[in-house]
């Protein structure tokens, strides 16, 4: 039977009956009890027997542990060291994006920048202040994370 008797897995009585039939069938199969009289329990017992009999390749019980030991430590994206080339290409891409953004802003938005100079002052526009606060909070959180690591 289920080890979690205090947890309400099902709110519908029909689902609870199915769960209990599955549990009875598995318990009977493990303990070697004779087959039950009701068809539902017998069916679940046959399913349990078929699942347990499917041992075609006969893997050892600790197969996953053995395979992990052979594979060794697999680096993840977070632990994989960046090469110098990757760092340089990332910096180059970032610089190209910043320059491209400035060029587009100057060529296409020149009249927009000059239309309302007060829009770019911190006192005149609360959104500029919000942007600066978000950038500061992000950088502060990153510095704190690095310090705690």
The SS-based structural class is mainly alpha
Give the uncertain stretches in residue-range form: none
Q: Tell me about the biggest sheet?
A: none
User: Could you tell me the mean pLDDT?
Assistant: 76
| Rg, Å, rounded | 32 Å
Q: Helix share of residues?
A: 55-70%
Helices, by number, come to 5
The topology string of helices and strands comes to HHHHH
Portion in strands? under 5%
Total beta-strand segments: 0
Structural summary, described in words:
Helix 1 crosses helix 2. With 149 residues, this protein is mainly alpha-helical. It is built from 5 helices and no strands. It has helices at residues 13-31, 39-53, 63-71, 84-115, 126-148. The mean pLDDT is 76.
Entry summary:
With 149 residues, this protein is an all-alpha fold. Helices cover 66% and strands 0% of the residues. α1 crosses α2.
Q: Which characteristics define this entry?
A:
elongated; 149 residues; mainly alpha; 5 helices
Furnish the topology, listing elements before pairings.
Layout: H1 13-31, H2 39-53, H3 63-71, H4 84-115, H5 126-148
């Amino acid at each position: 039977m289920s080890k979690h008797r205090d947890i309400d897995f099902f709110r519908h009585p029909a689902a609870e009956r199915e769960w209990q039939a599955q549990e009875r069938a598995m318990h009977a199969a493990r303990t070697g009890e004779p087959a039950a009289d009701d068809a539902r329990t017998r069916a679940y017992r046959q399913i349990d027997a078929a699942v347990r009999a499917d041992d075609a390749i006969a893997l050892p019980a600790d197969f996953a542990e053995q395979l992990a030991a052979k594979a060794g430590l697999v680096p993840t994206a977070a632990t994989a060291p960046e090469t110098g080339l990757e760092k340089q290409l990332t910096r180059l891409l970032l610089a190209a994006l910043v320059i491209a953004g400035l060029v587009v802003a100057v060529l296409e938005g020149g009249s927009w920048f000059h239309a309302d100079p007060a829009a770019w002052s911190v006192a005149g526009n609360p959104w500029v202040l919000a942007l600066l606060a978000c950038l500061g909070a992000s950088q502060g959180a990153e510095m704190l994370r690095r310090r705690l690591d």
